Amino acid sequence: MTRVIRYVPNFLTLARLAALPVIVIVYGHDVPGPSWTTAVIILAAALSDVIDGLIARQFDARSEFGRWVDPIVDRAFFFTIVAMLWYYDTLPLLAVLPILLRDGVILLLALPVRRFTSAGPAVSAWGRAANFVLILGLQYFIVDLRLLGWFFYGIGLLLYVGSAFLYLYRGLRFYLGERAAASG
User: Fold this and answer.
1) What pLDDT was estimated at residue 149?
2) What is the pLDDT of residue 114?
């Protein structure tokens, strides 16, 4: 049983990735108007992200694959959902751009860390809170409760951008620490 549990977090991550085209197809079918089916699929995918982390920590089922692929799938998840909402005119481009830019910066910062160390990207509490509140806001847009969507999206976006500055700070500290160690 323990051997099987070891693979569950990675399976959930890959299932979340596989859900993305389904989300886009279902939402495209339901637009314009509320898409409760899309909201349920996104909720299940978001919960799978929480569950895979809990299983990985609880059963010591962490892997190098999961350490790197899970955050990339998380970014792809947000990118796909906000791009889909922009494409179908549910969200304006100005609301989508900060998320796309933030995730691009995070991915660019992760590459040098990966090159110089085996440590995976560390997820902050701010990042987790931002993900939760953003998903909540996006869910409200998907079911056509726009006022609630804007409220939670605004808070989530502030947390999301704030967490980017935290990651940037950590990345700079890492880079400066590596340079000091190399020259010392």
Assistant:
1) 96
2) 55
For the CA atoms of 25, 10, 83, 79, the dihedral, rounded to the nearest 10 degrees, stands at: 180
3-state secondary structure of 22: helix
Average pLDDT across each block of 10 residues of the chain; the chain has 184 residues. List them in order: 79 95 97 95 93 88 83 87 95 92 74 53 73 93 96 94 81 74 72
pLDDT at 66: 83
d(CA 81, CA 49): 15
Secondary structure class of 61 (helix, strand, coil): coil
Q: Report the chain's C-alpha Rg in angstroms.
A: 18
pTM comes to: 0.82
Q: What is the domain range of residue 172?
A: 2-183
Distance of alpha carbon 86 from alpha carbon 90, whole angstroms: 6
Residues 66 and 100: their CA atoms lie apart, in Å, by 22
Residue whose C-alpha is closest to residue 129's, from 78, 163, 81:
163
Pick the closest to residue 74 from 107, 98, 25, 97 (CA basis): 107
Query: 84 phi and psi, to 5 degrees?
Result: -65, -45
Count up the domains in the chain and report the number.
1
Type of residue at 83: A
Could you tell me the CATH number of the domain that includes residue 89?
A: 1.20.120.1760
Distance CA 73, CA 25 (A): 18
